[in-house]
């Protein structure tokens, strides 16, 4: 994806990490093909996600949807501590029924145009208690630990979604967001399956096409073409995982040429699309 790298690989339904960076470091823009949850604990951090910028406070919960470009910017040498959870979109889709959907918190984040939940007294909440128990489960080998770990993770996701539904939380507004970039990204994602040429985008936003290309690459690390292709590939992957045929997934995700689609899919996911097996 241009200079933007897909980092992190998920070979299980979910993974959990507790990380502390004690020295200031630089992070490049990157993305994942799975969802990411960050519980921010400490540090002086500005978090950028798809053109939006958030000034984080301790115990903010950051929700990053699969395919969203993001990076933290560390302001000073204060310890940057966080809990990170990777979760497979396919796994979450298994827990979607008429009366519940464990993907709700991510979907609402899109609807609210905000990736950050600010939860008052989260450190005293059931959500954080379960989070700590889940973290502990990665370090023990007690009886039926794998099953217990899955139960804890499901409880964590239930508590997170209950919190997202609650009226006692805030979806944090971005600060110093790029007012020119955000509507372009939102337009692309809302019209992903339609024609999205450079000329059409430059006309839509009254921008010179060469300025638009340079501006987008400078602000995101992506070329516009690579950004659109990657988003369409992730959509196609999701469609196939949910039962669509390969041909339907190709054209329903915005590709016009089946051969081009197969070549791009194989290059990204290291496999030809099948209805069952993927490398995440």
From TrEMBL:
A GO MF term: sequence-specific DNA binding
Top-rank lineage group of the source organism: Bacteria
Keywords: DNA-binding, Transcription, Transcription regulation
Pfam families in alphabetical order: AraC_binding, HTH_18
Domain HTH araC/xylS-type: 182-279
Chain coiled-coil ranges: none
Protein name as annotated: AraC-like DNA-binding protein
Native source organism of the sequence: Mobilisporobacter senegalensis
Higher taxonomy: Bacteria, Bacillati, Bacillota, Clostridia, Lachnospirales
């Amino acid at each position: 994806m241009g200079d933007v790298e897909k980092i992190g690989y998920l070979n299980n339904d979910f993974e959990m990490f507790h990380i502390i960076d004690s020295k200031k470091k630089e992070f490049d823009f990157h993305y994942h093909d799975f969802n990411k949850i960050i519980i921010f604990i400490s540090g002086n951090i500005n978090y950028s996600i798809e053109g939006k910028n958030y000034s984080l406070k301790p115990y903010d919960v950051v929700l990053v949807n699969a395919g969203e470009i993001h990076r933290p910017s560390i302001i000073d040498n204060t310890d940057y501590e966080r809990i990170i959870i990777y979760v497979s979109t396919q796994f979450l889709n298994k827990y979607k029924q008429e009366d519940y959907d464990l993907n709700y918190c991510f979907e609402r984040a899109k609807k609210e145009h905000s990736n950050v939940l600010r939860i008052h007294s989260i450190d005293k909440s059931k959500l954080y208690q379960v989070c700590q128990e889940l973290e502990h489960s990665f370090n023990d080998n007690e009886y039926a630990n794998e099953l217990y770990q899955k139960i804890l993770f499901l409880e964590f996701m239930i508590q997170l979604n209950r919190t997202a539904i609650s009226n006692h939380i805030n979806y944090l507004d971005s600060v110093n967001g790029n007012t020119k970039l955000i509507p372009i990204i939102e337009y692309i994602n809302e019209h992903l399956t339609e024609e999205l040429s450079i000329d059409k985008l430059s006309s839509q936003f009254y921008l010179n096409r060469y300025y638009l290309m340079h501006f987008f690459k400078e602000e995101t690390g992506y070329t516009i073409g690579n950004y659109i292709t990657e988003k369409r590939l992730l959509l196609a992957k999701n469609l196939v995982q949910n039962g669509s045929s390969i041909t339907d997934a190709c054209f329903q995700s915005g590709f016009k040429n089946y051969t081009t689609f197969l070549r791009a899919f194989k290059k990204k996911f290291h496999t030809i699309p099948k209805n069952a097996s993927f490398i995440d």
